[in-house]
Amino acid sequence: MSETEPGPGSVTVGGLILANPLWLAPLAGVTTAPAREFFSRLGAGLTHTEMVSCAGLLQGNLKTQNMLNFLPKDKESGDFSDLLESPVVLQLFSGDADRMTRGAQAAVARLGPHRFAALGINMACPMPKVTRQGAGAALMKTPKTAFEMTRSLKRLGLPVWVKTRRLSEIPETLRFVDGLVEAGADNVCVHGRTPPQRYEGQADRQVVTWAAARFPGKISASGDVYAVEDIEEYLGMGCVGVMLARGALADPYLFPQALSALGYPIPLALKNPTREQRLEQLKRLGERARQFCGTRGAVVLIKRLMAGALKGTRGSRELRRRAGSTTDLNELLEVLKT
Ligand SMILES: Cc1cc2nc3c(=O)[nH]c(=O)nc-3n(C[C@H](O)[C@H](O)[C@H](O)COP(=O)(O)O)c2cc1C
Prior knowledge:
The chain is an alpha/beta fold. The protein has helices at 33-41, 54-58, 62-66, 97-111, 128-131, 143-154, 170-182, 205-214, 228-236, 246-250, 254-261, 268-271, 275-309, 316-324, 329-337, and strands spanning 11-13, 16-18, 22-24, 47-48, 52-53, 88-93, 118-123, 160-165, 187-191, 219-222, 241-244. It is globular.
């Protein structure tokens, strides 16, 4: 949950005070407000929006603008807390520094200056539809633009977080990170795979270690985070935070379990949830997703997260089979009651 003063176990990082160093990585197509809320409740100390196009924001594209949305408070459950979500990084992409800055300004003007904890620049996405625009991982080939973008975004007054990847050569990677830090990046997340690797092969932890040693307090890690040991290794290497991506999808309860292993006080219902508690949390996710994106979007989101959320529980395969054949949210919620 968002904090304004350091609490026990909190980390001051990237210009922010966060409850812990375990964060939900940006996951396009997944990290909408209800999913962020779900992971925040499991303990994620920070989350990201989906990947938001600055060109889309400037053109007033409705789909893009909707990616900025948050959920209203949960009146039904009587939960009126303002802090349903942990701090959120607004993840932006553009191949042009001026467009990036104007897009960020438009987003901040739309939601107010306090909605997002930081402005994030995607310098990692290897997908052609993004790199073709000179954005995402393509920015690693145009460092001048990448640094100018960072400098320019920094002038807006919010912390700037950059997520990038390993380049083929380690010294080149470190020089790139160096330039980002010099340009004012408050946090640089390094994913130890090169853009051509996309999500294949093993993530290189060595390059992340070197970056963390060279820029103490500034580097967070992404890549092959599936178990408590992976998290402990990255933190032990000097990273200030670790981003959970496919590992969080495969098992959302990795958040509370890892936090508990790191010494954070975690309720048993999260650390070692019963099948009923897991089903209850999925049901709540479905109901919140319905409020956010309607029944179809809610069904897609539950189906995306249910295998991981029910992993290892009695009858989960059968439940997934039954859920798989339904496209109706009420029916799906009924299935989850059983
Ligand atoms: C479905 C999916 C969507 C992703 N979307 C983004 C994104 O929007 N921005 C980004 O920087 N990385 C994105 N990534 C990459 C992850 O944030 C992470 O860096 C990558 O999966 C490596 O971590 P892992 O090996 O622990 O999964 C995405 C990955 C997946 C699997």
